[in-house]
Design a protein that fits this description.
alpha+beta, 2 domains, two-stranded antiparallel sheet, 3 helices
Protein backbone atom coordinates (compact mmCIF):
# COMPACT_ATOMS: atom_id res chain seq x y z
CA UNK A 1 0.00 0.00 0.00
CA UNK A 2 1.15 3.51 -0.81
CA UNK A 3 -0.08 6.96 0.11
CA UNK A 4 0.95 10.48 -0.79
CA UNK A 5 0.53 12.82 2.20
CA UNK A 6 0.26 16.59 1.91
CA UNK A 7 1.82 18.10 5.02
CA UNK A 8 1.68 21.73 3.78
CA UNK A 9 1.29 23.48 0.45
CA UNK A 10 5.02 23.04 -0.16
CA UNK A 11 5.71 19.73 1.58
CA UNK A 12 4.57 16.27 0.46
CA UNK A 13 5.54 12.79 1.65
CA UNK A 14 5.26 9.36 0.04
CA UNK A 15 4.67 6.57 2.53
CA UNK A 16 4.44 2.84 1.94
CA UNK A 17 3.53 -0.14 4.09
CA UNK A 18 2.39 -3.73 3.75
CA UNK A 19 -0.39 -3.48 6.34
CA UNK A 20 -3.10 -0.88 6.91
CA UNK A 21 -2.10 -0.26 10.52
CA UNK A 22 1.51 0.47 9.55
CA UNK A 23 0.40 2.86 6.81
CA UNK A 24 -1.91 4.54 9.33
CA UNK A 25 1.03 5.00 11.75
CA UNK A 26 3.23 6.50 9.03
CA UNK A 27 0.51 8.96 8.01
CA UNK A 28 0.01 9.90 11.66
CA UNK A 29 3.76 10.55 12.09
CA UNK A 30 3.89 12.84 9.07
CA UNK A 31 0.85 14.76 10.29
CA UNK A 32 2.11 15.11 13.87
CA UNK A 33 5.55 16.36 12.89
CA UNK A 34 5.21 18.21 9.60
CA UNK A 35 1.70 19.63 9.25
CA UNK A 36 2.48 22.91 10.98
CA UNK A 37 1.31 25.64 8.65
CA UNK A 38 1.70 28.58 10.97
CA UNK A 39 3.11 29.90 14.19
CA UNK A 40 1.13 29.01 17.29
CA UNK A 41 2.00 32.35 18.88
CA UNK A 42 1.31 34.92 16.14
CA UNK A 43 -0.29 32.89 13.33
CA UNK A 44 2.33 33.78 10.71
CA UNK A 45 2.91 31.24 7.96
CA UNK A 46 6.56 32.32 7.73
CA UNK A 47 7.98 29.33 9.66
CA UNK A 48 11.19 27.38 9.23
CA UNK A 49 12.28 23.89 10.33
CA UNK A 50 15.59 24.19 12.21
CA UNK A 51 18.11 21.57 13.35
CA UNK A 52 21.05 22.71 15.44
CA UNK A 53 23.68 21.40 17.83
CA UNK A 54 24.27 23.05 21.20
CA UNK A 55 27.63 23.31 22.94
CA UNK A 56 27.16 19.82 24.42
CA UNK A 57 26.48 18.30 20.97
CA UNK A 58 22.78 17.84 21.75
CA UNK A 59 20.70 17.84 18.57
CA UNK A 60 17.82 20.35 18.81
CA UNK A 61 14.89 20.13 16.42
CA UNK A 62 12.47 23.03 16.33
CA UNK A 63 10.18 25.04 14.13
CA UNK A 64 10.90 28.77 14.32
CA UNK A 65 8.61 31.64 13.32
CA UNK A 66 10.59 34.06 11.18
CA UNK A 67 8.31 36.94 12.18
CA UNK A 68 7.88 36.83 15.98
CA UNK A 69 10.80 34.38 16.66
CA UNK A 70 8.58 31.97 18.62
CA UNK A 71 9.59 28.34 18.44
CA UNK A 72 8.10 24.90 18.89
CA UNK A 73 10.63 22.42 20.23
CA UNK A 74 10.67 18.69 19.65
CA UNK A 75 11.70 15.87 21.95
CA UNK A 76 12.68 12.27 21.32
CA UNK A 77 11.16 9.13 22.74
CA UNK A 78 13.53 7.03 24.84
CA UNK A 79 12.44 3.92 22.99
CA UNK A 80 12.93 4.18 19.25
CA UNK A 81 14.11 7.81 19.20
CA UNK A 82 10.97 9.07 17.46
CA UNK A 83 10.48 12.83 17.60
CA UNK A 84 7.40 14.59 18.93
CA UNK A 85 6.34 18.20 19.45
CA UNK A 86 6.55 19.31 23.08
CA UNK A 87 3.03 20.62 23.56
CA UNK A 88 2.41 19.46 27.15
CA UNK A 89 4.00 20.60 30.40
CA UNK A 90 5.17 17.12 31.41
CA UNK A 91 7.07 16.73 28.11
CA UNK A 92 9.41 19.59 29.03
CA UNK A 93 12.71 18.85 30.74
CA UNK A 94 13.25 20.22 34.25
CA UNK A 95 15.37 23.01 32.82
CA UNK A 96 12.70 23.87 30.23
CA UNK A 97 10.02 23.86 32.94
CA UNK A 98 12.15 26.17 35.05
CA UNK A 99 12.63 28.53 32.11
CA UNK A 100 8.92 28.44 31.19
CA UNK A 101 7.48 28.48 34.71
CA UNK A 102 5.08 31.28 33.73
CA UNK A 103 3.19 28.70 31.58
CA UNK A 104 2.58 26.27 34.48
CA UNK A 105 -0.71 27.80 35.67
CA UNK A 106 -2.10 27.71 32.13
CA UNK A 107 -1.02 24.07 31.71
CA UNK A 108 -2.60 23.11 35.05
CA UNK A 109 -5.92 24.59 33.90
CA UNK A 110 -5.77 22.97 30.44
CA UNK A 111 -5.05 19.28 31.13
CA UNK A 112 -1.31 19.83 30.86
CA UNK A 113 -1.32 21.53 27.47
CA UNK A 114 0.97 24.53 27.00
CA UNK A 115 -0.31 27.90 25.77
CA UNK A 116 -0.01 28.74 22.06
CA UNK A 117 0.05 25.02 21.17
CA UNK A 118 3.52 24.72 22.70
CA UNK A 119 5.06 27.65 20.81
CA UNK A 120 7.02 30.14 22.91
CA UNK A 121 9.41 33.04 22.51
CA UNK A 122 12.75 32.22 24.06
CA UNK A 123 13.90 34.89 26.48
CA UNK A 124 17.36 34.27 27.94
CA UNK A 125 17.59 34.82 31.66
CA UNK A 126 19.39 38.03 32.54
CA UNK A 127 22.96 37.44 33.56
CA UNK A 128 24.38 39.48 36.39
CA UNK A 129 27.75 40.76 35.21
Amino acid sequence: MKAKIKATDNLWFDVEAEQEDELFKQIARVQEIFQYQGCGACGSTNIKFVSRLDTSDNDWLEIVCQDCRAKLIFGRTKKGGLIFPKIKWDQLSEKQQEHRINEKIYADKHRGYLPDKGWFIYKPKNCDS
